[in-house]
Amino acid sequence: MAQPVIWSDESLSNIEGIADFIGRDSLYYAQVVANEIFAAGESLHDSPRRGNMVPELNNPAIKELFSYSYRLIYEVRDTETEILAVIHGRRRLESVEQFNQGKG
């Protein structure tokens, strides 16, 4: 079932930070990675349940999808899918403020 994909302010800020970091070495690759992350997120429009459950949260509604070495953390809802955060695959989820506060 197709449904809209919503990008949280935090996820957009995360992608901006990722692009800034990569852009220190290559503006081209910064754009490539950012575009791929957005494409991966938008691909959830048609199949939002395809990702894996985030192991740290043990909540079947919150899933993750990888793009390059980045985790797109998202929540599947009845009428929409929201990208909650985009973090490096080695980063501990506990370091993401919204998950520490129980918002995710």
Mean pLDDT across the residues is: 89
Tally of individual domains:
1
Question: How far apart, in Å, are the first and last alpha carbons?
Answer: 23 Å
Sheet having the most strands: 5 strands, mixed
Instruction: Please report the first level of CATH classification, the CATH class.
Output: Alpha Beta
Topology pattern, helix = H, strand = E: EHHEEEEH
Low-pLDDT stretches: none
CATH architecture heading? 2-Layer Sandwich
Strand order of the largest sheet: 1-5-4-3-2
Q: Would you give the CATH topology?
A: YaeB-like fold
Residue share in β-strands: 25-35%
List keywords for this structure.
alpha+beta, YaeB-like fold, 104 residues, 5-stranded mixed β-sheet
Care to give the gist of this entry?
The protein contains three helices and five strands; from the N terminus they run E-H-H-E-E-E-E-H.
Topology of this protein?
Layout: E1 5-7, H1 9-23, H2 27-42, E2 52-53, E3 62-67, E4 70-76, E5 81-88, H3 97-100
Parallel strand pairs: 1-5
Antiparallel strand pairs: 2-3, 3-4, 4-5
Helix pairs in contact: 1-2
Characterization of the model:
The protein has 104 residues and is of the alpha+beta class. It has helices at residues 9-23, 27-42, 97-100; strands spanning 5-7, 52-53, 62-67, 70-76, 81-88. The longest helix has 16 residues, at 27-42. The protein is globular.
